[in-house]
């Protein structure tokens, strides 16, 4: 994209943001939409400020992010390791593949009640739910990354008498890094979904808990405000992740956007 | 998952001995098993029947210093030019300072000074193939297997790289087994040209080139001996190429 169209895109992004937020606010002010059902940006901003002063939103956000990021980290480590084992051991990989795919097609949020029953309503249930959403896609992508290694590169390594572990470290592992990164990216929102759903089932803190309590009081502003905080947060994490990944994977043909 | 791979006879009574420091080209119609021949020698494909010996040892052994230049460059995309060039030395456990110095020297021979830090995607196809050559030659192999190494390049780039490789070879004299479908290339570079039949591949004919060295590609192309060989080999190949083409159609 050349500089001119890049600037046009930036301008258009700002215009869209202003139109959406401004349109929402104005319609609420002029009574075109009922504030009771849809709240308004100014109400949300005020609620956010109040909540910030009482350290409420920060606390609940912290709880939810802790659950989500812990689940993401554990899911990534376990997923990558399982994926590598499956990818390196052909027999094991082929044998376990159908089970993994079956697991993956299971709607894992439906596991939530079961998980809560097993480990209770504390941190563990949200962590496990986030973990269960993250681990399978990361494992599958790592496995694919190994399978997708160019056989020509393996042949090249065999001609120079590379040992098996050298082929693994110098070809297979670097080859799955982009695959792992793209799985990690989608996993950020999976992990947050896991934590929130866990909190909906039952919790004493977290964004999900905030939304659930506000819903009980028919407080739309109280429901939307934490959602927007979460959205901004998840968006920032995604941007930071994409920037890091593009820096690290400079050798790739196409960058993420 | 290729359990039911068909058993195909790819090569048929191919008897070939390479002399030390000899440059042998093999030409043949596409799909005649030329690449399979190289894979046998490199130890990448196990031999079903018959015998292959590389410097008196079975193929794939660590004793035989052997280089293989693939048709596609086979560079590691996440390594820059220098890191790609050192890979064989790295695998052998040669110290970093030494392997990088040797790689830099070889990159200079290939005219790649200043590109050490570039990733493969950042350089042209011709440069990639030169990195691939440098990577093979830096290990100082006694035998170099080359599978249509210049086949994917445009005509001008191809000429330049051929010149470069010819010069390197005439100064260093390794044994080379060079697979190509380009008759002019086969004759201009080699000491001996083998002509293979369509599948199952047999050696149809063998020509001593007998053009004195050092050669330059421009001169070679205008020699009567070159034209004579080119025509003779084309005569041999014509029928086979037709057969191979009909086999596909």
Protein described:
The complex is a heterodimer of chains A (257) and B (249). With 257 residues, chain A is mainly alpha-helical. Chain A has helices spanning 3-29, 35-38, 41-53, 56-88, 90-105, 112-119, 123-147, 151-159, 164-201, 207-216, 220-248. In chain A, helix 9 runs antiparallel to helix 11. Chain B contains nine helices and six strands; from the N terminus they run βαβααααβαβαββαα. In chain B, helix 4 crosses helix 5 and helix 7 (183-189) crosses helix 9 (224-248). Chain B is globular. With 249 residues, chain B is of the alpha/beta class. Chain B folds into two domains: 1-65 and 143-249, Rossmann fold (3-Layer(aba) Sandwich), CATH 3.40.50; 75-141. Helices cover 41% and strands 12% of the residues of chain B. The A-B interface holds A 94, 150, 152-153, 155-163, 166, 170-171, 174, 177, 249-253 and B 1, 42-44, 60, 62, 66-68, 70, 72, 74, 76-80, 87-88, 90-92, 119-121, 139. Chain B: Belongs to the ABC transporter superfamily. Chain B: It holds the Pfam family ABC_tran. Chain B: This is ABC transporter ATP-binding protein.
Task: Describe how the helices and strands are arranged.
The complex is a heterodimer of chains A (257) and B (249).
Chain A: H1 3-29, H2 35-38, H3 41-53, H4 56-88, H5 90-105, H6 112-119, H7 123-147, H8 151-159, H9 164-201, H10 207-216, H11 220-248
Helix pairs in contact in A: 3-11, 4-5, 4-7, 4-9, 4-10, 5-7, 6-7, 7-9, 9-10, 9-11, 10-11
Chain B: E1 23-27, H1 34-42, E2 66-69, H2 81-85, H3 87-92, H4 96-109, H5 125-137, E3 143-147, H6 155-172, E4 175-180, H7 183-189, E5 192-196, E6 203-208, H8 217-221, H9 224-248
Parallel strand pairs in B: 1-4, 1-5, 2-3, 3-4
Antiparallel strand pairs in B: 5-6
Helix pairs in contact in B: 4-5, 7-9
Family (chain B): Belongs to the ABC transporter superfamily.
Domain ABC transporter (chain B): 1-223
GO molecular function (chain B): ATP binding; ATP hydrolysis activity
